[in-house]
Write the structure tokens for this entry.
Amino acid sequence: MKTIIYSTQSYERPYFEAMNQKKHILDFTEESLSLDTLEKITDHQALCCFVTDQLHRKIIERLKQKGIRLIALRSAGFDHIDLKAAQDFGIMVVRVPAYSPHAVAEFTIGLMLALIRKIPRTYDRVCAHNFSLEGQLGFNLQGKTVGIIGTGHIGSIVAKILSAFDCHILAYDIAPNNLCEKYKVTYVDQQTLLQQSDIISLHCPLNAETKYLINEKTLALMKPQVVLINTGRGALINTQAIIQALKKGKIGALALDVYENEKPLFFQNYSDKIILDDVFIRLQAFPNVLITPHQAFFTQEAVENIIKITLENLDYYEQGIIQNQIE
Ligand code: NAD
């Protein structure tokens, strides 16, 4: 199938070319999908895009006019596409639902340990030859109450790993996961989780119900010095509200692998450019905030699986078999 691949990252192309073995005609562009870059679509039947590509109604309407029949997302999350519009225009949307939940879960635990043992600050200090431990006192993960919001593929692995740390694990999910029984997870309502957790980690999808799940009101319910980790999606947190909570000293530490307005920044090199997003710069200025640029998924295994499953999704579509469709 003739497919155009938007927002191609440098690490992706070799995998695509090796695994495709010339089965599909693949055209690559590093440009992100927008009304201005749509002219790159000629006689393609499928469009493949990344988390940074925003597929709103106007774009989807134009894709339909250009003859696109399939949108293949190279991601598990699908909050960047207007699914209703895709349905209205009769374009099938497929995704890669679980390419490596371990990659994200392990990164989440890494962030958790980095925060509670202050590893990034220590690294900075040692670089400046400051070997004092003053101000670097951390705390054990063992025995702490960790709240997991969303216990699907990723959240359940976070629970599994935390059970080995001997944590008390609370979870909230609209559809509890039976697997979590093995990891001694106690399902509670969202309010109880927010009130009782020392550490809270977000693993639910971003949708109308979960947007700004962390806001002024929910922050007020949390324990003083709570540690928050977001590897889900940026808009699960109301950034302005979290900045106010950080200013008041309510938050012990915050790790963000995703950020509400990450689109222009993440996956780009801004080291010689001026960042115009003052909110991002404010967040970065807090000593207890650790930001990573949507990196949690980024392992060899995950990238390989994303591309393998994306190519399989194209194969199946051609054969009339429905796999990984988002409805
Ligand atoms: P999943 O679909 O397997 O699990 C999501 C869980 O959230 C499900 O159990 C679901 O029932 C639950 N849920 C849905 N609505 C909820 C609500 N209102 N409150 C509480 N729980 C709710 O998804 P997953 O593979 O575990 O991925 C979770 C999220 O992680 C994705 O949606 C994506 O946004 C994000 N993600 C981030 C990265 C990264 O690199 N940072 C990579 C992959 C996925």
Remarks:
- The longest helix spans residues 300-318.
- The mean pLDDT is 97.
- Residues 76-77, 98, 101, 104, 149-155, 172-175, 177, 203-206, 209-210, 231-233, 257-258, 294, 296-297 surround nicotinamide-adenine-dinucleotide (CB under 6 Å).
- Residues 267 and 315 are 28 Å apart (CA to CA).
